[in-house]
Amino acid sequence: MSTFKAPKGTYDLLPPDSARFLAVREAIAAPLRDAGYGYIETPGFEDVQLFARGVGESTDIVSKEMYVFTTKGGDQLALRPESTASVLRAVLESNLHKGGNLPVKVWYSGSQYRYERPQKGRYRHFSQVGAEAIGAEDPLLDAELIILADQAYRSLGLRQHRILLNSLGDRTCRPVYRAALQDFLRGLDLDEETRRRIEINPLRVLDDKREDVQKQLVGAPLLRDYLCEACRAYHEEVRELLTAEGVAFEDDPKLVRGLDYYTRTTFEFVHDGLGSQSAVGGGGRYDGLSEMIGGPALPSVGWALGVDRTVLALEAESVTLDLPATTSVYAVPLGEQARKVLFQMAGELRRSGIATDFAFGGRGLKGAMKSANRSGARLALIAGERDLAEGQVQLKDLESGEQSALALTEVVAEIRRLLG
Ligand code: HAM
């Protein structure tokens, strides 16, 4: 062990388990690519004001959880706690929205950083795959994104995830609701911090997990009853589209998200096998975010799915992914001459598209065969001085244990044939 450990709230992805993370990322990305979303990558840090203005000063994410630092040049930056604000910033900066090709549909995959209290499923460094559709107000788009996330989870074999759906209204109806909710909350018996929250971010109070608070919230006004006609019709259409596609969801009039930019459609994917950190993904519409960061009006919608929690959800459902072994052939040289010949042959196999690994370090037969078995390879290619003198190698089928001699000149063709 070295003197150093991974920082608190983080962990390393190591083989062979790391293959599952890659598979999860790929399973989420595949339906997005097929639906016309292009890949976008933005820096891991941004001007701290982007998040302060976009995600919101009053959110926990910005007020408590951001990794903020000043560069040697004096810039105030923050490690990204999420990627929606960054993606929108990048689209605006590069004028992607001006090509007359709206919505701009993009997907991303990468690390996010939040200084949270670590526990199972909640980390300070975690990974999301996300999708954003920027510049169109169309309930079909909201439905498309929810359907694609559901499809991704299903393709992985998840069955016990649930979709919670709500509408947070828009700038017409939300302020009316906010005032009514504040009136209600001010009459409750709450602690100092929560009373402060009523004034800055009353909707978040609905999200309070404490039982004594939840008890008092029975009878709180619901946004559902305050939606303006446009928001109500929009939401109804999203619901109908999901139903028509056979995507089951639950109306959750108390669903509030931890970021301030949401309007209208909001949703969360939850999994009951994860304990308190049950949200495996979340998202919604953010029609005002562009203007909040100095851009033009660009109604948009998106989501991000947590890769770490999706892997935990797979474990909770005991789903094992069918991951093909990455190595097909394992070369085991015995002696100096064999090392050179097989090394060259491994190169040739790789160039012809056959995944090949090699016993490095001049290892004995026993140890090398152990590694060959561990690699998951179908075939081992073994050669000693005597084989080479006869112009051949030994090919061993690691499943059946059968071994046969093969002329050096036929190796590639024969292995190709055997692997189909
Ligand atoms: P979020 O709900 O903050 O939304 O995060 C999305 C997902 O990231 C969560 O559901 C969870 O799976 C994962 N996640 C969040 N925090 C942690 C953590 N500390 N440890 C492990 N996983 C975590 C957003 O980030 C929005 N940008 C989503 C969005 C995209 N909205 C519109 N477009």
Please characterize this protein's 3D structure:
This protein is an alpha+beta fold. It has two domains: 18-173 and 227-316, BirA Bifunctional Protein, domain 2 (2-Layer Sandwich); 329-419, 3-Layer(aba) Sandwich (Rossmann fold). Helices cover 38% and strands 21% of the residues. It contains 16 helices and 16 strands. It has helices at residues 18-34, 48-54, 60-63, 84-93, 139-156, 174-186, 192-200, 202-205, 211-217, 229-244, 289-292, 307-316, 336-351, 365-374, 385-389, 411-419, and strands at residues 38-39, 45-47, 68-70, 76-79, 104-113, 125-134, 161-167, 250-251, 263-271, 279-285, 300-306, 329-333, 356-358, 379-383, 392-397, 403-407. An eight-stranded mixed sheet has the order 1-5-6-11-10-9-7-8, with helices on both faces. It has a five-stranded mixed sheet with strand order 13-12-14-15-16, sandwiched between helices. A hairpin with a 7-residue loop joins strand 9 (263-271) and strand 10 (279-285). Helix 1 runs antiparallel to helix 5 and helix 1 packs across helix 12. The two termini are 43 Å apart. The chain binds histidyl-adenosine monophosphate. Histidyl-adenosine monophosphate is lined by residues 82-84, 114, 116, 122-123, 126, 128, 130, 132, 258-259, 279-284, 286, 302-304, 306, 308-309.
